[in-house]
Design goal:
This protein is of the alpha+beta class. The protein contains 15 helices and 37 strands. The strands form 7 sheets. Strands 5, 6, 7, 8, 10, 11, 13, 14, 18 and 19 form a 10-stranded antiparallel sheet that branches. An 8-stranded parallel beta barrel has the order 20-21-22-25-26-27-28-29, surrounded by 5 helices. Strands 4, 9, 12, 15, 16 and 17 form a 6-stranded antiparallel sheet that branches. It binds alpha-D-galactopyranose. The site of alpha-D-galactopyranose has 11 residues, from loops.
């Protein structure tokens, strides 16, 4: 029986339909349209080489029958049958959710497609459940979270990133004219290179042009697969990477996909702002989602592995004086951790560095009015550690293969319940016994030799490991509701919406050069809330490319401001600059962390970045130069966004006070004089 299913979001309509055979098709996703206008067309084989289904827009394509393009789902039944056929069984519609159940009638198994939608947002949450209602095991070979059918036959530009350690989130855009375009990770984390996201458009800009976009909430090996088919239709799937993945779903059990967040916007600014607002309201751990994040000091860049009560307290005193609210002691405090060759796994306080324990430091930090945080790397172990000596079988390994090391470390097999429990209890013990209110959870190497002898189907480890990470994070947060968690993986190697569902923020990149950071932050801000983007002011590169202290702050204030410079080496003048900038940041923090973001100018086109954050009360504009192209020039036509056309705004620029209308600022814009290499300016616009 033919049926139409439709729902509206803030400005869009999404429509699906079944044909007489119960096959589920995608009919529409775009500007609001009356649902009753839609109907399902009959399919016909185009000719003997292109089947009806091959060109059809199915909502969730399974591998089976006359299907030759890529599928979202593939499985192997107990009898060896690898042909899936899922048709309509039932549906449930509520105010915020459409749930459609498809069934393979020959085996009784079900695919349950969830569409969660909101009247105040254009972001839709999608996920799929595979329910094994049959009497036998079923091996799921591919299980994407969604398939997106993009409208029209005009080729799309597809945006993702091509980053690396120290150069994360480098935005790249390619036009997909034919075949496949794949962005993925096979590393066990989402990694530094591609992101589990896409933006598809026909030449959109920051301010306008339709952009379809999606971001997967998953921190493991992922795949984003775009295809332009023989009829020039573009489809995109996001999900767990099917490379080396399968999952045996036992009779009576179900497999749930990671969530994917999809939207459609007018321009990239709207895309980022819609995603960011949605993430704050629905994705981030809710205990801190709507609260501004503290200005933290992290000691890694200052003291490395050489931590002790004295040097940490010395830094902490200065950190408190300049206005930091949280002090995080990074690597080096545990086990025999004097360099990166030993100690991971031994999560007890190093008695030589802290002969009287760690509480003297924590109490000292608390007495200075700051909370205390600590670094862990709970998924790892090193050969030179008590943990490895006691449990050499706790790592991923194959009996006949030597384990590869990276940074001298090995990956713990978190799919073993006892290993998951150990990782949890290591942090739990420290939290139970000390006033620790923040954990930076690091993960410094990809998986290798991925043997897990405890699993009947070893290919499940990719998903099981990631789920264990999330479970541990959730348990910690449940037991210690005041605990803030930061996800880190050698910088931004695990910065995705999956991590942000369980951790309050992420470490963006180990590269803290304030100029390099602008490109990294530009890429990060496309899909992720800048609130979650930890940004330290450090001494990185200061011997090679000295950058003025104000510039360093201007760069870091565009996210969640933090400090990592060696405060013991800063001049009194620089410490005062730190203090002034931190005080200023605290004032503008709600605007930066919760305002609308507009990337007005970028270095590739203009030689500088101009980034604006606006809310109903005004705006703040950060302008930072990159390179020497603009030596002694003026920056013309810096036009703002997101202001009230009819309101007046007061601002000071170059020592002069101005009052201009929102219409003037958004259409004529401002001119910035006296521009020099590495100039940086902040302009505050206050609504009258
Ligand atoms: C990783 C992190 C850094 C720091 C070091 C400590 O590289 O990204 O911020 O914590 O580990 O070893």
């Amino acid at each position: 029986m033919k049926q139409i299913f439709a729902f509206d979001t803030k400005t869009l309509t999404y429509v699906l339909g079944t044909d007489d055979d119960g096959r589920l098709f995608h009919l529409y996703w775009g500007k609001k349209i009356k649902h009753s206008d839609f109907s399902v067309d009959e399919l016909n084989d185009a000719n003997s080489n292109h089947s009806d289904l091959d060109g059809a827009c199915q909502e969730y394509t399974v591998f089976g029958g006359k299907m030759y393009r890529n599928c979202a789902f593939k499985c192997t039944y107990f009898d060896g049958c690898r042909d899936a056929l899922y048709t309509y069984k039932s549906h449930i519609e509520s105010e915020n959710e459409l749930v459609i159940t498809l069934q393979d009638k020959a085996y009784g198994t079900e695919l349950v497609l969830h569409f969660v939608h909101y009247s105040d947002s254009d972001v839709i949450t999608r996920y799929v459940e595979f329910c094994n209602n049959s009497a036998d095991d079923v091996k799921v070979d591919k299980f994407m979270s969604c398939e997106v059918n993009l409208p029209g036959l005009e080729p799309y530009y597809i945006q993702n990133t091509n980053g690396s350690w120290g150069g994360e989130f480098q935005v790249k855009t390619e036009k997909l004219l034919a075949g496949y375009l794949v962005f993925d990770s096979r590393k066990g984390t989402s990694g530094h290179t591609n992101q589990p996201v896409f933006a598809a458009h026909h030449g959109a800009t920051e301010k306008n042009g339709t952009v379809y976009y999606g971001a997967l909430g998953y921190s493991g090996s992922f795949k984003v697969e775009a295809q332009c088919d023989f009829e020039n239709r573009t489809r995109i799937m996001l999900g767990i990477n099917d490379f080396d993945f399968s999952y045996t779903v036992k009779s009576g059990e179900k497999l749930v996909s990671p969530k994917v967040y999809l939207g459609c916007a007018d321009g990239f600014a709207q895309m980022s702002n819609d995603m960011s607002k949605f993430a704050v309201a629905h994705i981030l751990p809710q205990s801190f989602a709507d609260k501004p994040l503290p200005v933290l000091y992290n000691s890694w860049e200052a003291t490395g592995f050489d931590v002790n009560t004295e040097n940490q307290l010395s830094l902490a005193k200065k950190a408190a004086e300049i206005g930091c609210e949280l002090f995080v002691m990074d690597d080096g405090w545990f086990g025999e951790r004097n360099d990166d060759r030993a100690g991971l796994g031994d999560w007890f306080v190093n008695a030589e560095k802290f002969p009287d324990g760690i509480d003297e430091l924590i109490d000292g930090v608390n007495a200075l009015g700051m909370d205390f945080g600590l670094w862990f790397e709970p998924e790892m172990v090193q050969r030179d550690s008590d943990l490895f000596r006691a449990h050499p079988d706790w790592i991923y390994h194959y009996p006949k293969r030597a384990n590869s090391e990276m940074r001298h470390q090995l990956v713990l097999n978190l799919t073993k319940p006892e290993v998951e429990e150990y990782a949890f209890s290591a942090m739990d013990e420290m939290l139970k016994n000390h006033n620790i209110r923040y954990i930076k959870w690091d993960m410094n190497r990809p998986f290798s030799e991925i043997g897990a002898e405890n699993l009947e189907n070893g290919q499940e480890l990719w998903l099981r490991h990631t789920e264990a990470v999330y479970r541990i994070a959730d348990r910690l947060k449940e037991k210690y509701p005041y605990l803030q968690l930061e996800a880190c993986s050698s910088g931004g190697g695990r910065a995705d919406l999956g991590a942000m569902e369980h951790f309050d923020m992420v470490w963006t990149s180990d590269n803290t050069d304030p100029v390099d950071r602008l490109a990294i932050q530009y890429g990060f801000s496309q899909f992720y809330p800048v609130k979650c983007m930890r940004a330290w002011v450090t001494d990185w590169n200061s011997d090679k490319r000295p950058v003025p202290m104000d510039y360093r702050f201007n760069s870091s204030m565009q996210g969640s401001l933090s400090v990592g410079a060696n405060l013991d080496r800063l001049s009194a003048e620089d410490l005062q600059k730190c203090k002034d900038n931190i005080a200023f940041y605290k004032k503008i923090r709600p605007l930066v962390q919760f305002g609308n973001l507009y990337r007005l100018k970028t270095a590739d086109k203009n030689g500088y970045y101009a980034t604006e954050y606006a809310n109903g009360d005004g705006a703040i504009l950060f302008v930072c130069g990159v390179g020497t192209a603009l030596f002694a020039q003026r920056l013309h036509d810096v036009t703002l966004c997101g202001l009230d056309e009819n309101a007046q705004y007061i601002y000071t620029l170059g020592g002069r006070k101005y009052t201009k209308s929102g219409a003037y600022l958004m259409n004529k814009g401002i001119v910035i004089d006296d521009w020099n290499p590495l100039s940086s300016v902040i302009v505050e616009f206050e609504k009258v």
